[in-house]
Amino acid sequence: MTLQGKKIAILIAPRGTEEPEFVQPRDAVTKAGASVTVIGLEAGEAETVNNDLDPAGRYAVDATIKGASASDYDGLVIPG
């Protein structure tokens, strides 16, 4: 399946999102050709975890929820 030319938003919590639940969908839609925007509650970086407690990666937040509009995107990924 191709998502070429599509804009996809993916939500991330400031802390506590499971890394595989964020990274794997993000990578899949990117590989399918979509442009991905990471949307969070706060600007800056979000911290993911593994196994609910173990620190994992840090990911840049591209836009905040306040600055995002559903009409700007073709799809939404909600990790988890």
Q: What is the CA-CA span between the terminal residues? A: 22 Å
- C-alpha-based Rg, rounded: 12 Å
Describe the sheet with the most strands: 4 strands, parallel
CATH architecture, by name, is 3-Layer(aba) Sandwich
What does this structure look like?
By secondary structure, the protein is an alpha/beta fold. It has a single domain, classed as Class I glutamine amidotransferase (GATase) domain (Rossmann fold, 3-Layer(aba) Sandwich). 16% of the residues lie in helices and 45% in strands. A 4-stranded parallel beta sheet has the order 6-3-1-7. It has a 3-stranded mixed beta sheet with strand order 2-4-5. It is globular. The protein starts with 6 loop residues before the first strand and ends with a strand. 15% of the residues are buried.
SSE map:
Blueprint: E1 7-12, E2 15-18, H1 19-31, E3 35-40, E4 44-50, E5 54-61, E6 63-64, E7 75-77
Parallel strand pairs: 1-3, 1-7, 2-4, 3-6
Antiparallel strand pairs: 4-5
How would you summarize what this structure contains?
With 80 residues, this protein is of the alpha/beta class.
Please name the defining characteristics of this protein.
80 residues, alpha/beta, Rossmann fold, four-stranded parallel β-sheet, three-stranded mixed β-sheet, 1 helix, globular
